[in-house]
Design brief:
The protein has about 325 residues and is α/β, with parallel strands linked by helices. It contains 7 helices and 12 strands. The strands form 2 sheets. A 6-stranded mixed sheet has the order 3-2-1-10-11-12, covered by helices on one side. Helix 1 runs parallel beside helix 3 and helix 2 packs parallel to helix 5.
Length: about 325
């Protein structure tokens, strides 16, 4: 069974909600079990983000039955807190393994094409969007204009992913070419790269880019190019939050802001090794925020991890420059 493509009242992302208004507040998060309450959306709504970014495991589908998948997406979509967020914010996002279809799944997952349509339905992606026809949910969005623009690049780390290994790939050839084009043509002063799995943190046993060393080297080589602007990575997946920074792989401090989980925190992993972590990890329910101060050159970016009440528990200030 395939998810049906519905008819949507659609406005272009550049005009929806606030037109070309300057973006100053973005919120993001991952790992939300649709079967559980999500009171954290009260705090997210109170933060009043102009943009909300789903970073993966947005439901726990774990099925090849698209009727089951669609029912779970609908349950998430109709949650009261999330419905309020949809009414006030632009919503964009990517997926990870559980909303893709199976734990740690990659290109071998048999229902990936049908699952992609279910995910795009959840985001109200229109029928003529390129993601409806291509393989993978990767996308980019630019908000604002000129010297106050923000570019968000969403990777798909599932559809084309090989099994982990020395030569294993994550993105696939077409997505690599697309990513290079999106980065080299960006004129935005603020650039965000969304990866559902962590990039900088590398010493734990769970999924991360280091399990694919050739692919990670390729990514860092791309980010090191002079025609590619500095950026910050946002990631999820881990059921904990932390801020990591890579000081030497590229020619500027590369931050990876990990926010997880919205309603399914494990509370463990306190002593997990991460030599690139700033401070301690945070193991309770959380979401991430970005506040942009455009009155500096380059703009000053304040990334924060916030708890279920919206209180800042971790924070880092970044200026994307070499």
């Amino acid at each position: 069974m395939k998810c049906a493509v519905g008819l949507y009242l659609f406005f272009s992302l550049s005009s929806l909600a606030f037109g070309n208004e300057t973006v100053t507040r973005i919120a993001f998060g991952s790992c939300a079990k649709e079967s559980r309450p999500s009171p954290i959306f009260d705090a997210i709504n109170e933060f009043s983000p102009q943009i909300w970014i789903w970073m993966g495991d947005n439901i726990y589908g774990d099925t090849t039955d698209m009727a089951v998948m669609k029912e779970k997406w609908n349950r998430q979509k109709n949650g009261e807190g999330y419905k309020r967020l949809r009414e006030s914010s632009i919503v964009i996002g990517t997926w990870d393994d559980h909303d893709y279809g199976d734990n740690d799944a990659g290109k071998e997952y048999p229902a990936k094409a049908a699952s992609q349509q279910c995910f795009l339905d959840f985001l109200d992606v229109p029928a003529d969007d390129p993601r409806r026809k291509r393989e993978g949910v990767y996308a980019s969005h630019t908000f604002g204009e000129g010297n106050r623009a923000v570019k968000v690049i969403l990777l798909d780390t599932r559809f084309h992913r090989d099994l982990p290994g020395e030569n294993g790939d994550i993105l696939g050839g077409e997505q690599w070419s697309w990513l290079e084009g999106e980065l080299t043509t960006s004129k935005a002063p603020v650039n965000l790269l969304i990866s559902s799995i962590q990039t900088v943190a590398s010493e734990h046993r769970f999924e991360n880019w280091t399990k694919f060393p050739k692919a990670k080297d390729r990514l860092y080589q791309l980010l090191s190019r002079k025609d590619v602007p500095p950026l910050t990575i946002l990631s999820g997946d881990r059921h904990l939050a932390e801020i990591s920074v890579e000081e030497s792989a590229v020619d500027y401090p590369l931050h990876d802001i990990t926010s997880s989980s919205l309603n399914a925190a494990f509370g463990g992993n306190k002593n997990e090794l991460n030599s690139r972590r700033i401070g301690e990890n945070f193991r309770e329910t959380n979401f991430g925020t970005l506040e942009i101060d455009w009155n500096t050159a380059p703009p000053s970016l304040t990334f924060a991890i916030r708890d279920e009440k919206g209180v800042v528990v971790r924070e880092v200030k970044v200026q994307q420059q070499r």
